[in-house]
Amino acid sequence: MTAPFPPPGESAACGETRLAVPGMRCAGCIAKIESGLAVLDGVVSARVDFTAKQVRLVHRPDLEPPAIVDALSALGFDAHVLVTPLTIVDDSAEQRRLLSALGVAAFAAMNIMLLSVSVWSGAAGGNRAMFHWLSAAIAIPTVIWSGRPFFGSAWRALRHGRTNMDVPISIGVSLATAMSLYETVTGGEHAWFDGAVMLLFFLLGGRVLDAMMRGRARQGALALMQASASGANVIDAAGIGHWVRAEEIQPGARMLVAAGERIAADGILESGACRIDRSMMTGEAVPVTMAVGDELLAGMLNLDGPIIIVANRVGEDRAIAGLARAMQDAGQHRSRYVRIADRAAKLYAPAVHTLAAASFIGWMIAGAGVHQSLLIAIAVLIITCPCALGLAVPVAQVVASGALMRAGVLVKDGSALERLASASRVVFDKTGTVTLGRMVPIAIDRLDRRQQSLALALAQASAHPLSRGLAAALRAMGVAPATLHDISEVAGQGMCGHDGAATVRLGRPSGSSDGGTAVALTIGNEPPTLIAMADVLRPDAAAALARLRQMGMESMLLSGDNEAGVAPIARALAITAVSAARPEEKLALIQNMSAAGDRVLMVGDGLNDGPALAAAHVSMAPSSASDVGQQAADLVFMGDSLLSVPRAVMAARRTMRVVKQNMALAIGYNIIAVPLAIAGLATPLIAAVAMSLSSLIVVGNSLRLIRATSGVAR
Amino acid sequence: MTGLTLLIPVALGLGLLGLFAFQWALRSGQFDDLDGAALRILIDEDEDEAGAAADSATAGEQS
């Protein structure tokens, strides 16, 4: 356990630490974590936020985050310290503002409806006037307070010469309120306060759902990211190691990198030969052996250790930072994507406004007078206000992404499901995507029982990636570890322990200078037994590709690994493959495909996939992916099964089908209601009934997705 | 008419009470972790007692 942590200074000074604990699943976990941390010395309070899979800990400053992480791992939970909880605060603040506006609108809608029902059931004269005045007193502050999200967004759109769904909403609501106030002052028969406020209530409901989904997805994604690889142990002139954050490492700094650690800055290997896992940077599955003087890049994983690297390119000069810039450039097309609701609004808003204007002019020509014609035109605006349309998309997406989240797929972006549904082909990265991205022993059953249990006893005591892979595989076979004493880890050599008099060793095979991945088990004086390790296909990769093919999506492999590494995988999966592609070549290929009209779903995990993930129409990454990969991807799936990809596509398509049904329902409602309004027959009563009915139908239709999506997910 | 002067303020007052309760709940963070709230009800607060009771119950069955 050599993984160092960022200095506890900043986070401990305020006495509050947030940790992501992705592994909590049930009420038992909440109880276990909270009671387990509460007894820890120095803890003031521990509170689990289950929705975000986080623990918020208030503690004395002298309790350091590593101790908390250790305590959690003793409880059986993997945890990492969250360094930047700022975005979370922002998200929840917006969510609260919307919820508060929704609460006000709900109160107003209920009370105005109470008064309106009295008017509809025949209140007349002084009573009606009083009810109208009371309604006005409640409605006007409510419209101003709760309508701000819509007015603000409509104003921003209009200022940039665009229109969105909020433009007709804002015009409809404010005209209806103004007209009703006029009617109230002049003692008129109909006031539309109830319609205006109810509209705000339904639409705010849609907004709240939308914000909740985005907030939850972002928190979930944040919880997966690991804050630990963001620095290095730098050795000063006196030979003492200090933890330095990645962005503060100076050129010439000597970094000590232990086995199993990622390198934080580009540099030259100064001492210690080692095997390096470059898969995140290049896609190569087989580790390469590096010698003194070779260049190492940030993001590579040191398999043996310890080594000393002299940093030469740091911060923004690192190769990894160049990838991040390419990723940012490639991702710019994303912000230009117009969501389906806004596309609909582009057609809808002008149509509605023309219709209202036409009915005003029509009734004027028919000789109805300005007052009457204006009333009818406003009735048209209110009836056509996109209440159901505003709910059509968010409700369906929230339901679907909630069900997907329970099935282990995080939807990070609001428009991701829309884009995923329209994807036409899939491009897979190889290492870590169609393969597991970690070393798994091959033909381990060739070892006898005793060898297996000895190997497990040694492997489980080490944090080395090869040891961990071996230990996991042996444990999955039900092997019980042997009892060894004096277990020790010799850096760069492996594990060593004593079984009675015999010395048992597990480590790199002696005399092998190639980068091959095998470990040797030596018991006493017996000749060593080689255990071959390799990165193997995910268990149901072939099934996942077959499912995608059935759904009409062709797959291809795009890997940075060499021909020899890619060809067997491509043959096993029977798909076309491009090998030895550098990050910029991956990016170019995706861009060419997009230019040719393909909507590409890119599935990848490594740093080298970052630009391609960002450039693709839509992208997915496994939760084992690099931080960069997860950041660039729209969806992140958990677990080893690649079947999550076709499942997510299926769920996205189903969601879009329901969204389109919802829109059809909303339009169907308009076809019935608009002629009534144009004919001058729509009263506030009819508007209220029609509005709530259409909203309920849309919400009900979306809820069907709970069953459909979780059915797909299983 | 006299009924209305009483009933309308009562109705509005109750509504406002609900609204304030909601805003208070929102501000005190009760809507922050909805999934957690659904699960917390299952947590057995006095685990030791319950555990002891369950132990004695099984012990009773065995004897």
Which outline of chain B best applies? Answer: elongated
> Which of globular, elongated, flat, extended, rod-shaped describes the shape of chain A?
elongated
Poorly predicted runs of chain A: 1-13
- The pLDDT mean of chain B sits at 73
What is the SS-derived class of chain A?
A: alpha+beta
Q: Helix fraction of chain B?
A: over 70%
Of all protein chain pairs, which has the greatest interface, and how many residues does each chain bring to it? A-B, 26 and 26 residues
Radius of gyration of chain B: 24 Å
Distance between the termini of chain B: 75 Å
* Proportion of residues in extended strands of chain A: 15-25%
Oligomer: heterodimer
Total helix count of chain B?
A: 3
Could you give the order of the helices and strands of chain B? Answer: HHH
- The number of helical elements of chain A comes to 25
Largest sheet of chain B: none
Rounded to the nearest angstrom, the radius of gyration of chain A is: 31 Å
* Major sheet size, sense and barrel closure of chain A: 7 strands, mixed
* Number of beta strands of chain B: 0
Beta-strand portion of chain B reads: under 5%
Record the SSE blueprint.
The complex is a heterodimer of chains A (714) and B (63).
Chain A: H1 9-13, E1 16-20, H2 27-38, E2 43-49, E3 54-59, H3 65-74, E4 80-81, H4 86-120, H5 125-146, H6 148-159, H7 166-185, H8 193-224, E5 231-235, E6 241-245, E7 254-257, E8 266-271, E9 274-277, H9 279-282, E10 288-290, E11 295-296, E12 301-302, E13 307-313, H10 319-330, H11 332-335, H12 340-365, H13 370-384, H14 387-406, E14 409-411, H15 416-421, E15 425-428, H16 430-434, E16 435-441, H17 449-459, H18 465-476, E17 485-490, E18 494-499, E19 502-507, E20 518-523, E21 529-537, H19 541-550, E22 554-558, H20 563-573, E23 576-578, H21 583-595, E24 600-603, H22 610-615, E25 618-622, H23 627-632, E26 635-637, H24 644-678, H25 684-713
Parallel strand pairs in A: 15-22, 15-24, 22-23, 24-25, 25-26
Antiparallel strand pairs in A: 1-3, 1-4, 2-3, 5-6, 5-7, 7-13, 8-11, 8-13, 9-10, 9-12, 14-26, 16-21, 17-18, 18-19, 19-20, 20-21
Helix pairs in contact in A: 4-5, 4-8, 5-7, 5-8, 6-7, 7-8, 7-13, 8-14, 8-25, 12-13, 13-24, 14-24, 14-25, 17-18, 24-25
Chain B: H1 2-27, H2 34-40, H3 47-62
